[in-house]
Amino acid sequence: MDLPRVRVYMPAYEPKKAHIRAAVESVLAQTEKNWTLLINDDASVRESVKSYVQDFLGDPRITFRRNPKNLGIGGNWNECLKNDPPPPLTGEGPGERGLVAFLFHDDLWEPAYLEKMIAALEANPTAGFAATNHMYLKEGEVPAVSFYEELQKFVQQNISPGLHEHRMFLRWWMERGLKPNVIGEPSFVVLRRSLMEKVGPFNASMVQFLDSEYWARCLLNADWVYVPEVLGKFRVHPAGMSAVNEGLGRGVFERFQTLQTVVESLPSEEQAMGNAALTKALSGMIEQYVTRRKQGRNVSGQGGGGLKTFAFRHPIILLRAIAQCCAKK
């Protein structure tokens, strides 16, 4: 049997029936037909996920599984990969590992999504992954919707179509503190499995910066290609994890942790640039912490231990960050 060109993974948790069915239907509508789909339920309690998709399981390309216990966002992404391994290596070339595409249970693809993403990667063999432009669908009262509008405008103004050399792009992104997430949500990124095997699993301890952290590690190893055509829809609604994370202020330290990881992997000639990015990010984090406390908003303590360790190991960077923060006042 021919191997699928793309293995599609749909990590699900407490999805609305209409949302997950629409997501699966958008996979079935793809012009590229050589794919498999694994729907992986992260031990949902309130929703009967399998019953929602039962009638789709007659398609031999679609399978369903449920985690024995809840693993969280990153854990569920990793579980998808773990439970759908590619065949053993045969030495037939770098493309034999195939491609991986995530589609979250409340997002949607345009029919030509897979076809055009595959074409972009085939036309750019040094690219380890491709990302595409997409729309944001607002449902209900979502206070963070302006954030998505500003992000979309920023990407249009700063990210050119086509291939981006990984070192040059990573340097530009680091100088901005790895923000905003210009590559985008995983639902609109297709990756070579060979790159994912090199980069390793998603950092399951993270919540808010999980995807950006992974893109940064990918950029240490491979170029990427941007497809400017709108090929999908990201649903923004109060029940979505993005809205929940924004509301709770989780992951305040995760961007800084990611910068640390990247800087440690940089060649010696780029360490000065990396340390400058760390200083700038730490200054911004201190300022954000103070602002949130003044506003009475929640500040996550996740990663605080790692931050203290960093401060003891790099007191000069800490002092520079405090000086930068004070200079803004």
TrEMBL record:
Glycosyltransferase 2-like domain span: 8-140
Transferase keyword on record: yes
Listed InterPro entries: Glyco_trans_2-like, Glycosyltransf_2, Nucleotide-diphossugar_trans
Gene3D superfamilies: Spore Coat Polysaccharide Biosynthesis Protein SpsA, Chain A
Annotated SUPFAM superfamilies: Nucleotide-diphospho-sugar transferases
Superkingdom classification of source: Bacteria
Gene Ontology molecular function: any one: transferase activity
One Pfam short name: Glycos_transf_2
Keywords associated with the record: Transferase
Protein name per UniProt: Glycosyl transferase family protein
Species of origin: Candidatus Peribacter riflensis
